[in-house]
Amino acid sequence: REIIRRKAVQALYKFYLIAPNQVQHIHDKFRKALCDRDAGVMAASLHIYLQMIKENSSGYKDLTGSFVTILKQVVGGKLPIDFNYHSVPAPWLQIQLLR
Which domain holds residue 28? Predict the structure, then answer.
C-alpha cells in the first residue's frame, strides 16, 4: 500500500507539471503526503516540494516548521533502517530538507 501512495504522489506531481491550473486540490494531497506514516511517501513529497519551492519559495514558508520537525526525526534516527546509508540516517533527505 505504501508504494501505491508513493506512486500516486509522483503521478499527481506529473499532472501538476502538465496542467497546474487544472489540478487545484493537489496542494492538499501533497501536504497529506508530507505527514504520511510511511517514510517513502514522505520522502517522495519532499522531493516534489523541493521542486515547487524552487519555483515559488514564498508560497511555502508556512511549511518550515514541518520541514524542521521531519529533519529532527531523520537526524534522530526515527526512520526505518532501510533509509540509513553507512550508518548515516537518510543523508539524501537531510540534504533536501536543508535546501
Answer: 2-98
